[in-house]
């Protein structure tokens, strides 16, 4: 909470709110009969700021003894929406809850606390959460003592917090992406006061190390940086996640070594823009290529990373990735549009030509590389010709897969006020055409694997058939094949016999293949 007294009417335009008290710790108000303790609320203006203030790394995050019994005998559920960053935050949230004594459950009726870790990237992501809140209202009526919390990117938005305060007064807790480590304190406060507790910091962000994490599955996520400074004109992330800040290399490397020691077979390094890693270090010259080079030497079989922005993809990184080994031949390289004019309006800071140049350079250095991408159709004012340029770029690069989206205006971003004369039917039709093109290329790249032998990390057993296993190639292709469940978590060689658009099928073969031939 900043020391200056805040004019709440600026953020929350409700007339029925009554201020009960106010001091340096926050403000208590009453809306529709519900008392709300606002420790700190989102502030869009502040979220835009990128000051010179250096990033603080906090290591001392031991949970005090008095919090460790709060959840004894109680159960939790965390629902996660959005990207891998959020998935990974949920692992921290679960880790903290378990440190407090809570146990996981999947049964809503058994849960004493339910948290929704939300995503704000598109309107439909937000609609899902409000829909879920509608369902949870009934549970809350049946079980008034259950705590219901909303966190993640939506809670960083003023309009969302306002809407929850106004219309979903049964929520007990709202906390932001910079407040995850404060969860034990906030739960204590909500349990003790029975008021709705709101704590959303809009500061640029620190780095909090040593928080507990409850990792699940074979694949470990490792944050290498937080936040985003790119401010693409359509995107909410720079406002919900704060400024770009990199974890210290020694902390990242220690975490990766620890995961290797625990037997993880695959890790994914996470950041909104991993290629900007290290740009914010003031004392050392150390970039993403250097980090990958160090991780290349660690004994963990597969290393992935996401997401890489085309702009900061430098030659040193390409050189390091070309070493192969545990650095897999898959690069997610979001293009967003194939038109330089649209890219300019999106403020992506590269052109169609420089993107293609980069893709060719990478292909030359890593011949069996698989590219995937993200594409937005129907950006404000996108013309038919500009959309055709996206289709032609898709053909030229030949992506193995792509996430495609219809542009969704996000309040407070520059694109939200750009004139948009493209009707929704046109946008939908473009999306369909784009998806058809992507499917065609995905199918072609799968077909090329017919008869080849691929190295597969076995991830699980098919839901419908106990003897069918599934896993992924180094290039992230989904493979189904017959085998026994004790192979889960191991690497096997599979010869491809059948291909579909989004997966391939094959037979497990016993003779091993040299890692260098694996695809
Ligand atoms: N940091 C990543 C993207 C994270 S968001 C990057 O820059 O590549 C994931 C994807 O969501 C984006 O790549 C973009 O394609 C899409 N997206 C972001 N904002 C959007 C919006 N307002 N409407 C539609 N799609 C959006
Ligand atoms: Fe959003 Fe652009 Fe940052 Fe990606 S790089 S998170 S699209 S602002
Ligand atoms: Fe969504 Fe936030 Fe990720 S907006 S995509 S959860 S960074």
From TrEMBL:
Location within or outside the cell: Cytoplasm
SUPFAM superfamilies per UniProt: Radical SAM enzymes
Domain of life: Bacteria
Protein residues bound to [4Fe-4S] cluster 1: 83, 119, 153
Protein name per the record: tRNA-2-methylthio-N(6)-dimethylallyladenosine synthase
CDD domains assigned: Radical_SAM
Signal sequence residues: none
Family from the record: Belongs to the methylthiotransferase family. MiaB subfamily.
Coiled coil segments of this chain: none
NCBIfam families per UniProt: miaB-methiolase, MiaB/RimO family radical SAM methylthiotransferase
Residues of the TRAM domain: 447-510
Record's GO cellular component terms: cytosol
GO terms for MF: 4 iron, 4 sulfur cluster binding; metal ion binding; tRNA-2-methylthio-N(6)-dimethylallyladenosine(37) synthase activity
Keyword list, A-Z: 4Fe-4S, Cytoplasm, Iron, Iron-sulfur, Metal-binding, S-adenosyl-L-methionine, Transferase, tRNA processing
InterPro entries with a match to the protein in the record: Elp3/MiaA/NifB-like_rSAM (IPR006638), Methylthiotransferase (IPR005839), Methylthiotransferase_CS (IPR020612), Methylthiotransferase_N (IPR013848), Methylthiotransferase_N_sf (IPR038135), MiaB_methiolase (IPR006463), rSAM (IPR007197), rSAM_horseshoe (IPR023404)
Cofactor note: Binds 2 [4Fe-4S] clusters. One cluster is coordinated with 3 cysteines and an exchangeable S-adenosyl-L-methionine.
